[in-house]
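Follow-up to my post from last week.
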Amino acid sequence: MKELTRTEAAEFLRSHDNYCILTHRRPDGDTLGSAAALCRGLRTIGKNAYILENPEITDKYRNLHDGLTETMCQADATVVSVDVASEKLLNAEFAALLPRLELLIDHHGSNTYFAPQGIVDAGSAACGELVYDILMELGVEMDKSTAEALYTAITADTGCFRYSNTTAHTLRTAAACLEAGADTYRINKALFETNRMSRLKMEAYLAQHLELHANGTIALALIPLEAEHECGVGEDDMESISNFARNVEGVQLAVTFRTDKTGATKLSVRSAPGYDASKVCAALGGGGHVAAAGARVECGQTEAREKILEILSQQGYL
Amino acid sequence: MKELTRTEAAEFLRSHDNYCILTHRRPDGDTLGSAAALCRGLRTIGKNAYILENPEITDKYRNLHDGLTETMCQADATVVSVDVASEKLLNAEFAALLPRLELLIDHHGSNTYFAPQGIVDAGSAACGELVYDILMELGVEMDKSTAEALYTAITADTGCFRYSNTTAHTLRTAAACLEAGADTYRINKALFETNRMSRLKMEAYLAQHLELHANGTIALALIPLEAEHECGVGEDDMESISNFARNVEGVQLAVTFRTDKTGATKLSVRSAPGYDASKVCAALGGGGHVAAAGARVECGQTEAREKILEILSQQGYL
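User reply:
Got it. Predicted complex:
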C-alpha cells in the first residue's frame, strides 16, 4: 500500500467527486463518527458523498448517520474506508467492494494495508482525530453536525480522554469541535452516563460476589451463565466487564470468569503496574499484554478458579 | 473588592516575595491542585511560597501537597486564597487570617468578594484553569508536578470534561498539561476509576431496589439508614449518589431519598430536559434548579414516597 501524508490524502479526496464510505463490523463511535464527519466535510467542499449503510449500527449512534447513507454503492463511486484495521473487519457485503477500495484512513498500528493507498496514523487516539486533520487540509469549516460526529469518534475511542492513548492533539481537536458548536455534554451523557438496568444488575451481582484475596490485592469475579441470564444482559452489556473488578480500590490484579457456548471458561486478567497479567495467562496457554491478558480453559468456572489460584500462588501473588 | 485582570493579578504576584496560600474546607481537587500549581509556579520564578496545611486533605490528594506545606502562616507572608468562594468556606484557623488576605483567585460566580483585590472568572471551568492563565502571564514554564496539579484541578471540576462547564479553553489547558508531562491516565484512574467496595455495594443495593414508574421514565431510589449501614458507606461514598438513578437508561426524573440525623427525609431530584426538578421540590417547600433540586420533609421515607408520588401525579408525570 502506498502510504500517504495528510496533505496527499486531502489531495486524493479533492481529485475525485463521488464517494462511498465504508465502516467496520460491530461499528463503534469512532468508525461511525469518522464516516459521518468525512461525508459531511466532503459535501461541504462540493463533493457527492454518502456512507454505505451499516446494518449493525445501534440506536446509540443511529442519528449520526441521518441523511448521510445509501444502501447501495454506486458504480462510479470512489470507495474509502475509515477506522477499518483489516479486510476481515468488513461484513460480507462490504468486503465484496474490496476490489474497488481506493483509500483507507485508519489509526490502528495493526492495519493490514488492504487498499492501494491510505493513511494509517497510530499516533491518533481516534480515527476521527486523523479525519479532522484531513478535513483541515481540505479547508473544511466544521458545522455543528460535523463537529459532533468528530467529537463522538474521539470521546468514544478515548473513554472521554481517560485512556492512555489521549494526547495533547486529541484534546485540542476536541476543543476545536466544542468551538464549532458540538454539544459535548449531551454526547458524553449518552455515551458514558447512561446505564442499562441489565448492566447495573450485573455490576450489583459482581459487587456482592467478588472474591478478594491477599489483603484485597487480588480479585476473582466469577460470572456463571445463570447470573448473566438472571440479570438479563446481552453481549453489549458485558463490554469491559473485566474492568469492574480491576477498578475496586486496592485491587492490583483482577480475574474475570465467563462461560462460553461450549461450556469452557474464558478468563480476562487485568493488572496494575508490578503485576503481570500476561504471565498469569501464559501459564494457561493464553496471552496478551502486561496489563490486560486472556486465556480459555476447557473446564467449568469452579475448576478454572482452582487453577488460577494455584498459578497466582506459584507466581507469588498469593 | 478591586477586580483584577489576569495581567494585573500576575503583576501583583510579581511584586511580592513571600506567599501563604489558602484552600477551602472539605478540599477538592480544584482547590488543592490550584494551590499546588500556584505554589510551584511562584517558586519557579524565585518567590518564597507555601500552602497552609489543610487539615481536611484526604489521601486521594495528599501527594499533591508533598513538600509544599507549612503549618503556620509566617508574619511577613502575603496571603492568597484559591478556589474559595466565600469566607464561610475557610476553617476557623484559616478564617483568622482573613484580615491579612490580600488576593483571591476564584471561578465561582457566587464569590462574595471578601478580599481587597482578586480575580473571579466564572467562565473558567476550574480555578486551576485560571491559575494556568496567570502562570502563563508570569512566564512560568510548567514542570511535570505543576502540570499534574493543574490537570487534577481541571479534571476534578469537570468530571473529566463531561460537565457542561467544559470549554475549548478547558481542553486546551489540559492539552498544555499533558504536553508538559502530566500522567493524565494515572490521575484519571485514581479520581474516576477507583471504586470503594462500600460504594459499589450501595450502588448494588440501588440497582436491586430502584422503583420505576411511568414506563421507566420516573425512578424512586429509597435509601434507608439500615442500607447505608449494611453497605458500610460514609458521606464520601454517597457523593453524587443521586446521579445513580438519573443515569439509568430511560429515566427522565429521579428522586433519591435519604434519612438525616433527625429522622427527616432529604430528597434529591434530578431531571432531564422537559422535566422540572425544581417544581417538584417547590411543592414540598424545597428548591433548586430545573435539572437538580432538593427538599427536606419532616417524615420517614415511606410517607415521603407517598407525597412525592402524589406531587408527580399532580404535575402530570405519572
